[in-house]
């Protein structure tokens, strides 16, 4: 890995106080105990006591000493001064700066409180061993490793060394770990396995592709036949018989596997022996996991379509027989009217019914209704029965190849699968059979219907796979989500670091008390101002009072804003897309993040031109053809294909995007837009017209076709931070949590906004525990539940809302498990998208889930109260979400080729292409921001009235001045090559 991997923000903040320390945080971490105060009291003079106390608390919190104590946030200085009774703060600081005491104090603090230097004996060894463990448990992102290293040094009272020392140390550890990983992967290989792996790279006679190329192509459609082929593919993977040693870092193994999945076989062949064999081992192991995932994806689709089609068929049949049912029901109504006639005696009822309806007619009506009515939870077996052959096509192979495991809730299904596999003559296990299935499995004569039993097992298997009550190994998407949680001595070692980084406490009581106080104060604030808030009221609806929140009016645009927007727009230079990329590459050097997949430092002449061309080919959805120029070496077809295969991949796109985000963060205009502490997330849909398992139907967005949703995170500086591609449309708001946790830019948004959608108490709880504020837009509060903790608290008119009580006793006994879960999420041990499966058994939430839900209920209530109370909160949420729409509009214009449809069949291809789109969007936004800044400077120099409140409402998503069509030329003027800006347009001569 490169040695200089830190962002400018990480360098700037190293050994510095954060800018936004909360009062409760200061109260916790800047408390002087009795021994501290006793020792400080012995210092002569108020200035000496204050200086000593500040140096001590700074060393404890930041990990270093300050030469200038005025750089410490003043609220911290006040907190310390109050505890040691120093009144004249300013004079004391000035005297301390001039005295020699500060140098003696640092030596004394080191000795008395046990602070050590990084170079002292044993420190590097201890830190290295700790980093080895962290790396080996799955945390390998350099930025995150750096943050955790700094926290380790502070917690272990090691004074921070120079930042380059830490950077080099982490790079050295990661390099050693890569070598150790390669050797661990291949140490148990037999000669037979080595030969099989080497054969993957060979091209057999009369074949045009190697075995590796053939295996890498997964299924693209779902049917019973392709399911059988997918199961055979698993058996081919197992023929390699590669079993990995336990406790390897899955993230690093995944990087090797991804390389094997995308690189040419010739590139793999040229690797050193250790790395080559380790790469093939990783591929073989992950190939089985991928093959199993593909097979279960197909199984899920096949079963889903099977049961859905049975339901639709049943519905059509019901419609055809509705007249018969109506007629029979009418006959029974006539008979029932006689039964309900109180004027008739019991003896007269029977004869009158037969006189009105007739005995035979009544029998026919009863028989008809009995045949046509269905229970509300019917499983539509009569329609499924016709698909018996479809099941027989794949069931034997499925039972033979897939080895399911389960938690306690899934054991009945495992027993049923084992019974089917064994073809036993013993009675079938019936624990999984529900009442609705039982009527079909055992008929009136109690005869066993094996076909119905098989459909019942498959029905239960489908649901259990979604909940992960059933799981398989190895697997990416269907593994046991509980297996990777931190535990044992490993958890004991990292718990302090996790608590410090997330501002949590080892014991729950202090954290919860602050949380409850925040809820109570928010209730009282909103109640106090309720009558003065014109946007909220209570209305009587259906006999009960409901809260009504008036929608915001459209924000007026002053004439000054319209005029400024017009002036800026008229001055932005017209430019072709290739020139924009080359110019921003020159200004930010984001191209440097694109390293060769095999030979990290391999470069070529005019490589930046080739990389920009490939990025645009992906982002514009045109393919390489419009960019090919055989008369320009950097744009020859072979060169572009080589760059595409060796430089454009997920990790290089992510790294280059981080450079662009950092560059935008330095812009004057971007800083006026925001500090990067707010982000919003929304999805953009793409139709996928080709056959793909990683696409799903949704008639609202894709008509009769299938598609994906590109879910992306946008900062208030207008830069995209991270994205993920989801089949179909988003159903799980925890995907958003994954997007936030896995973003690797220098911006650290803490308030995450999203549009109205499905979100649970658990989602709110996890966001809060991980240091974020989940802030969805609230469209309707009519059915919302507001929670309280104190049953006796009086919240005035809000007592009508605060009907439900959060139970802290559900949290306290499980606090350590809560910390363990959020720690595993923070360090990437478990994916956020699979965490819900950790929190439930069957359809019931675990005790841990209930504890997190209680935290979420309190946080959600605080959010709703602030939302209804603060118009600016609602307005900022709406404006931030509107930014996402602006970005998506620009994305549609860029992604114009092939009718804007995504033609990638596989997940990796979709992610890489949409990742390139996101990168190009950030390039365009940064270019616009630079030239908008220059335009504003020009306008101010011309004495044009520019109001700051108008500046912040300017959008960098303008696109009319970009030429996105035609053949593309990659060239720049000399002035731009020299780092100068293009000349702005003359608005009078456009």
From TrEMBL:
Keyword annotations from UniProtKB, A to Z: DNA recombination, DNA-binding, Transposition
Keyword DNA-binding applies: yes
Domain Tn3 transposase DDE: 579-968
A Pfam family per the record: DDE_Tnp_Tn3
DUF4158 domain mapped to chain residues: 5-173
Biological process annotations from GO: DNA transposition
Recorded GO MF terms: DNA binding; transposase activity
UniProt record similarity statement: Belongs to the transposase 7 family.
Protein name listed in UniProt: Transposase and inactivated derivatives, TnpA family
Taxonomy of the source species: Bacteria, Pseudomonadati, Pseudomonadota, Gammaproteobacteria, Legionellales
